[in-house]
Amino acid sequence: MLREKKMHYLRAFVLFLLVICTLPVSVQSCIKQEREALLKLRAGLSDPSNRLASWSSNKCCNWAGIRCSNQTGHVTELDLSNSYYYMTYRNYKGHSLIGTISSSILALSGLEYLDLSGNNFGEGTGVPNFIGTFEKLKYLNLSRAGFSGTIPPQLGNMSRLQYLDLSNNDGLTDSTDISWLSHLQSLTHLDMSQVNLQNSKEWVQSLNKLPALEVLILENNSLTHIPQSLPFVNFTSLRVLHISTQNFNTTIPDWIFSLHSLSDLNLEECHFVGSFPIALGNLTSLSKLVLGCSALEGKIPPLNNLTKLTYVHLSCILNGEPIDIGEVLSQFSRETRRKLEGLILYDTHLTGNLSGLAREMPSLKYLDLCGNKLSGPMPNSFWNLTNLIEVDLSVNSFTGSLTDARLNNLPKLEVLSLGGNQLCGEVPPPPYSISFYDLSNNRLAQFPDSFEAPQLTELYLSNNLISGTIKFPLCRFPSLRILDLSSNNISGFISNCGTYNTQAIDRVNNNPSGTGTTLSSLNCSNFLQEIDLHNNSLTGGFPSLKFCIGLEYLDLGDNNFHGEIPQWIGENLSELIFLRMHSNLLSGNIHSKLAMLKKLRVLDLADNNLSGPLPENLGTFSGMSSLKHDADEPSDPLFQRREDLFESDYLHLPTSIDLSNNYLTGEIPRNITALIGLVNLNLSHNHLIGEIPAEIERMRSLQSLDLHLNNLSGSIPPSISGLNSVKVIDLSYNNLSGSIPTGYYLHKLNASSIYTGNPYLCGPPLENSCVDSETSSDNNNNSRHVSHVEKWLYFFIEFRFVVGCFVVVSVLLFILVTSTFKQYAKK
Measuring CA to CA, which of 193, 433, 472, 813 is 20 to 30 A from 533? Predict the structure, then answer.
């Protein structure tokens, strides 16, 4: 009994030891050498948003982005990725780490995971060679990290690497030899999108040596060559193959159809030619097929074998010939049609209607039939597709009323675009889940009394027949960024709300009577980024927007606002990129504080009553003083193909200043030539005096220069011939004089109208020659010179005569006085 009791205790003790030995060791600190290496890394980086604020304590394993092994304490994961790239619509780079990657991280000998994505580590340099020495590395993500130059072949030394992402680095390229990739025998995931592989002729052969490769993504690599066949297909483990936006101009290679494990095939915009390959039917594991925007011809072959398909993208490849949508869908089996969740067939010349769609494809989640020739009313059965998430039926010929549209039957719907059709009736209230709602360019005549969509971010109802006063309580739309009610007959706008989160308010081309709420009575939030109210009949003083500190776009043009431009625009709206107040009744001076808008790229104050001199600091707009504008931003997660519905994307507009048709006086500030990134400059129809700045050649980005109808004088500076980008110049109707400068770029314009109304200008392309003018000028100069000499000669002669007379008179007086004195003495 005692023995059994001892054995029981022994077993319990052994079990206790096993538990203790198998428990993970909690490492509170970290290895000193590795901590110092990380601190050196941080010392070489700029961290504008303090993402690395935790990198100060002794416990480096608890730092942001750091993970350590529980057994050894070594750092195994270094994650410096910028998650804001995917979270924010703009300005994600404000959270980017900037600098260079220090070689000190080589001390992290146990590193298995390295993510540097979404930052700016390159600063014009290449991927560090030393990264290739991490023998234990399994995961490497260098996407969007700012690297350029040639990819170091040393990356091929990481034999354990399973995941490699080098995508979306501007200027990153590879040499003609990418054989280093073939050494990564453990690689399962490779993304080299936007890496320039133009000179890599045997890229397929190198990748074919990776037997473990499952995911291959190559987008926009400038590839022009792809082999039609391979002696042996080795990368048969491929499940995902994305080769898109290339320039092959050949038929789809046969070896692709031997990849029987493929579940996701994307060959979009590769310029493949020939007919639809029948061999597509061999890829029976396909669940996603994307062949959009190729040059394939003929009809889609029967694809009855592809029974696992759930997503099909065959847009813009049916060349020219109209085809009924029913005929396209008949190429898929009934089983496949019922399982399809995504059908993308935009710009495909489809005809017919949607009467049988709900019955044939009850599982649809994503439907894009934009830009076709579909017609007829929207069938009531369409609103029974309860799984729909995103729908784009815009730019077709659908007719009928939407009054009875049962959108509330679609509880998952986030995107609905029906713009560019002929729909009529009332604007149907959107479902509670809607985020993007576009019914623009239709014949809708009535705005609903009320509807609620708390997740709505964009609402487009422009170019309809909506009239009267609309009720739109902004407080019910806390996420709203863009509201476009342009080109209607709206007479009032009722919004009984306080703070809201609207990014853009657009009532363009309406006819407000002033009885509704105007912008001056709406409270701004920091999220308000875009306001477009141009081409209305709005009146009164300049609206108070001083608290809209997040504004990037402000267009109040073509209205009747009066009064002065407030100083707070420059003081408060520091984020402004686009400022347009064209065609109003604004008066007073242009205040120098306007130049505080360092990000401004477009300034349009034309057609007002502005007066006084131009501000002396006009040349200090930083946004116009750079030759390069960085407008990189994340793609829209919803319908990436969808274009911005504003008239133009202000982030990509050419830089311009238009102050024409005012009453401005004084000289053109000399420092305006510091705006070397300015593309358009218009100061015409004012009362400017003085000379054209002599250093105007510095403004080499100028494509349009308009100074006509002013009082400018003096000669045209010869440096103007150095404006090698200029396409339009107008210096007419000033008081300019002298010869017109010559030069290659000016000679290309060669239009006398450029200089009309300057009677003292001469030389080509004007008819009056500068020879006569110069001769006349020389004669006048000679005449003035002779006259000048004669005056001095006459003066000298007269001077000598006066002096001579004085001497003679003096001598005579001396003799007379002396004679008289002698006679007096004798007496």
Answer: 433
- Whether 703 contacts 728, CB under 8 Å: yes
Residue 145's CB is within 10 A of a number of other CB atoms, namely 27
Q: CA 571: distance to chain centroid?
A: 25
- Rounded mean pLDDT, 244-251: 94
By mean pLDDT, which of 63-67, 522-526, 655-659, 662-666 is the weakest?
A: 522-526
pLDDT at 301 over 80: yes
Is residue 664 within 8 Å of 641, Cβ to Cβ?
no
Q: In the structure encoding, which two tokens stand for residue 697, read together? A: 């050649």
Indicate the pTM of the whole model.
0.75
Cα–Cα distance, 621 to 792 (Å, whole number) = 55
Beta bridge partners of 265: 241, 289
CA-only gyration radius of the chain, Å: 39
Give the pLDDT of residue 539: 72
Taking a C-beta distance cutoff of 8 angstroms, is the pair 63, 55 a contact? Answer: yes
Which residues is 311 bridged to in the sheet?
A: 288, 342
pLDDT at 162: 98
Question: Which amino acid would we find at residue 431?
Answer: P
Encode 445-454: b = buried (16+ Cβ within 10 Å), e = exposed.
bbbeeebebe
Binning the chain into helix, strand and coil, the percentages to the nearest 5 are 25, 20, 55
Give residue for tokens 């019922």.
338
Q: How does DSSP assign 129-185, residue by residue? A: GGGGG-TT--EEE-TTS---EEPPGGGGG-TT--EEE--S-TTEE--S--GGGGG-T
**Using an 8 Å Cβ cutoff, are 299 and 330 in contact?**
no
Contact 534, 512 (CB under 8 A): no
Q: Are 480 and 500 in contact (CB under 8 A)?
A: yes
Residue bearing the bigger pLDDT, 644 or 581: 581
Cβ neighbours of 738 (radius 10 Å): 15
Q: What is the distance between the alpha carbons of residues 405 and 419, in angstroms, rounded to a whole number? A: 15
Which amino acid belongs to residue 702? L
Task: Report the relative pairing of strands 436-438 and 415-417 from DSSP bridges.
Answer: parallel
Backbone φ and ψ of 34, nearest 5°: -75, -35
> What pLDDT is attached to residue 472?
73
Phi, psi of 802 (to 5 degrees): -65, -45
Tokens of 125: 């340099």
Which pair of structure tokens corresponds to residue 532?
A: 């477009």
Which pLDDT value is given to residue 777? 40
**3-state class (DSSP) for residue 771:** helix
**Phi, psi (rounded to 5 degrees) for 556:** -115, 20
Cα–Cα distance for residue pair 186/160, rounded to 1 Å:
6
Confidence of residue 524 (pLDDT cuts 50, 70, 90): low
The backbone torsions φ and ψ at residue 414, rounded to the nearest 5 degrees and listed phi first, read -110, -30
Task: Determine which helix (DSSP H) or strand (DSSP E) holds 19, and give its type and residue range.
Answer: helix 2-22
H/E element, 823: helix 770-826
- Residue 146: closest CA among 161, 160, 162, 167: 167
Residue 656 · residue 603 · CB < 8 Å: yes
Separation of alpha carbons 334 and 103, rounded Å: 59
Residue 370 structure tokens: 């934009």
Q: Kindly write down the DSSP assignment for every residue of 508-527, as one continuous string.
A: TT----SSS--GGGSPP-TT
Residue 410: both structure tokens together: 């679609």
Across the chain, mean pLDDT equals: 83
